[in-house]
Amino acid sequence: MNANIAEFLRASAHRHPDAACVVAGDTTYTWAEIDRAADALAAGLVQRGLHAGDRVALLLGNCVEFVIAYYGAARAGLVSVPLNPAYTSPEVAVLLADAGARMLIVQPSTERVAEESASALPGCEIVSTASRDWAEILRSGGDAVLAEVATAPDALALLLFTAGTSGRPKGAMLTHGALRANIEMLLSLTEPPAVVDDDVVLVVLPMFHVYGLNTALGLAVAAGATVVLSDRFDPVESLQLIASRAVTTVAGAPAMYQAWCATPGLREAMATVRLLSSGGAPLPVRVFEQFADLTGLRIFEGYGMTETAPVVATTLVSGSPKAGSVGRPLPGLDLRLADEDGTEVDEGDPGEVWVRGPSVFRGYWPDGAGGPDADGWFRSGDVAYADEDGDLHLVDRRREVILVSGFNVYPREIELVIDDLEGVAEAAVVGVPDDATGEAVTALVVARRGATLTAEQIADHCATRLARFKCPTVIRVVEALPHSATGKVAKGRLRDVYGDAGYGS
Ligand code: AMP
């Protein structure tokens, strides 16, 4: 069997060659067109001297060229390295050098950054999708026949740099087998199905992130559904797109649902939608409920990470969305909740999520460090508990737990309390070193537009709802918080943005 991820594209193209595969702007591309373009690119890249295992970096937004580049590179046995097109040249330079990229595919808006960063890597050829080179590669490949070589499941398909919410980016190595396994597990769910071939899927989540790439695009391609690409999330424009293209499923992130709740015409625009999912960051209960009130649609929440390609658990498994829960593990994955020593916690207690199964990554580039242990378990760093139905609730990131005089304080619990206060748009709670208690609970809070909010109000609100050791001792009302691609607060960057001294003021 050929385990190449691009075989999903091939199979869907055989099933219905003339149906719509990708809609981008005003243009619709059929399955046969995308499949042929991926073939041509694969052959063209090989003709250009690239060999199986070489890395091809993509500095592209959500455009049709991304889809062609990803599947074309995969088909040629090359490893895609999608990078955030909003990165600056120093950021791109570091990642290109780390990945040892042989080629960087860019679009007009990222050409300048590419040229500035490529000096870090003389062996890396830049190709713009707007250039003759791109057309040439597609054309030259078009006449060539790429000898079909069966890809092994453990061959590398993707190098995805992930910093989580802190630290230096590391390249997670995902194989063809891992990417396929996650898709196949999701396709095995039937009530309701995650996606079927007459679905029209909105892909607005960035495809340089695993959620947009494998769960939005990859899953839709495997099912043979139509992909409607959108390069940038704007609440009004995205609703217009959903209505005009009769979108039926949306892969989303909490910030999107929150923004839609405040957008007029939501219910009408969602008339054709049958399934919505959220992941990548916690979906506030308030947003889940408000969205259901406004549209009659309940959002399925999932949990996963780059290292697990990505979905670990989702409420799609039981088929019933539940506010505040990420549902149950996908069939085919093993999951355990363990304490610091690796012992399984008592039922209902919070423990670190350990995951084992075919969609787990091979470790971090280049040597596989940090991968699953000898028994195949990967420790996620997330803390969760299972409720009486067996549905998981995420509590926090293990390394973000704050230790106040020896007591565990889960920042998420404090953030949820602060979120409940009228006038709060968003809150981030972190620990800072403290001479007296080891760590002190510090809250950075953003006010809703037009609302006035004081540190005293927040302190009073917390004091009536939280034990004293959990109450923030330092509270700052700030302009904005830094975010990751899926809308998580990038806690590792808070210090850069506000500085150590700033926490105390
Ligand atoms: P990434 O590798 O960028 O996808 O980030 C993965 C991390 O996002 C996980 O380890 C979790 O900490 C967090 N995450 C993903 N989904 C959820 C969710 N539904 N609720 C809360 N946190 C989530």
List the defining traits of the structure above.
single chain, 505 residues, alpha/beta, GMP Synthetase, Chain A, domain 3, nine-stranded mixed sheet, four-stranded parallel sheet, 15 helices, 24 strands, 32% helix, disordered C terminus, binds adenosine monophosphate
Specify the structural class.
alpha/beta
Oligomeric grouping of the chains: single chain
Secondary structure: number of strands: 24
CATH topology label of the domain at 402-498: GMP Synthetase, Chain A, domain 3
Instruction: Tell me, rounded to a whole number, the average pLDDT.
Output: 92
Number of helices: 15
Which geometry do the CA atoms define? globular
Radius of gyration: 23 Å
Overall description:
Strand 9 (200-203), helix 8 and strand 10 (226-229) form a beta-alpha-beta unit. 49% of the residues are buried. This protein has 15 helices and 24 strands. Strands 2-1-10-9-11-12-13-14-15 form a nine-stranded mixed sheet. It has a domain at 402-498: GMP Synthetase, Chain A, domain 3, CATH 3.30.300.30. The longest helix is centred in the N-terminal third of the chain and has 17 residues, at 31-47. The N and C termini lie far apart (62 Å). Helix content is 32%, strand content 25%. The protein has helices at 7-15, 31-47, 64-75, 89-99, 111-118, 132-143, 176-187, 210-223, 235-244, 254-261, 266-269, 285-295, 411-419, 455-463, 491-504; strands at 20-24, 27-30, 55-59, 79-82, 103-106, 125-128, 156-162, 170-175, 200-203, 226-229, 249-252, 275-278, 300-304, 311-314, 328-329, 334-338, 351-356, 378-386, 392-397, 402-404, 407-409, 424-434, 438-447, 474-478. Helix 1 runs antiparallel to helix 2 (31-47) and helix 2 (31-47) packs across helix 6 (132-143). With 505 residues, the protein is an alpha/beta fold.
